[in-house]
């Protein structure tokens, strides 16, 4: 991901904030993939929660083009759970969405209810839990 002037990267060598690009090379992917999404932005003068819409597929997340190693048969993932953070930097509340048998559920403290997949909180997603699909 490329940083922007709004969210620069701090270079410990030159001791300054810079726009930069982060690159990862993947050699082998795990059967279970957990993705932590950046939800908070820090700068010299302030910090805040990022409220951007995050578009992620519920099924068929294909990472095969990102794998540089010879083994990419576990490169397609299906989402099975989402940890959400609702609120701000200083305070908030965590909820979860979990898929069981093809049905999505919303879990909020002591309440559990069915939720349509189209209504999942893509602004509040914090951690994505996926499992590899064997083809």
Point out poorly predicted stretches: none
Percentage beta strand:
35-45%
The count of β-strands is: 11
Main sheet summary = 7 strands, antiparallel
- What letter string, H or E per element, gives the SSE order? EEEEEEEEEEE
Shape: flat
> Helicity range of the residues?
under 10%
Question: Gap between N and C termini, in Å?
Answer: 29 Å
Mean pLDDT: 83
In terms of structural class, how would the helical and strand content be classed?
mainly beta
Using only CA atoms, what is the Rg? 17 Å
Annotation field: number of helices: 0
Provide an overview of this structure:
This protein has 135 residues and is mostly beta strands. Helices cover 0% and strands 43% of the residues. The chain is built from no helices and 11 strands. The protein has strands spanning 9-11, 16-18, 32-36, 40-42, 47-49, 61-62, 76-87, 92-100, 103-108, 111-114, 125-132. The strands form 3 sheets. Strands 3, 6, 7, 8, 9, 10 and 11 form a 7-stranded antiparallel β-sheet that branches. β8 (92-100) and β9 (103-108) form a beta hairpin. It is flat, with a radius of gyration of 17 Å. The two termini are 29 Å apart.
């Amino acid at each position: 991901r490329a940083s922007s002037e709004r969210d620069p990267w701090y270079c410990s060598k030159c001791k300054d904030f810079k726009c930069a690009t982060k690159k990862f090379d993947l050699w082998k992917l795990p059967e279970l993939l957990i993705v932590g999404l950046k939800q908070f932005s820090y700068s010299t003068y302030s910090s805040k929660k990022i409220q951007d819409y995050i578009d992620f597929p519920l099924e068929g997340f294909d990472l095969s083009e990102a794998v540089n190693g010879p083994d990419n048969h576990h490169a397609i993932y299906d989402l099975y759970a989402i940890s959400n953070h609702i609120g701000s930097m200083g305070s908030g509340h965590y909820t979860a969405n979990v898929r069981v048998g093809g049905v999505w559920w919303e879990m909020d403290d002591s309440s559990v209810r069915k939720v349509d997949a189209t209504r999942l909180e893509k602004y509040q997603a914090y951690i994505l839990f996926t499992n590899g699909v064997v083809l």
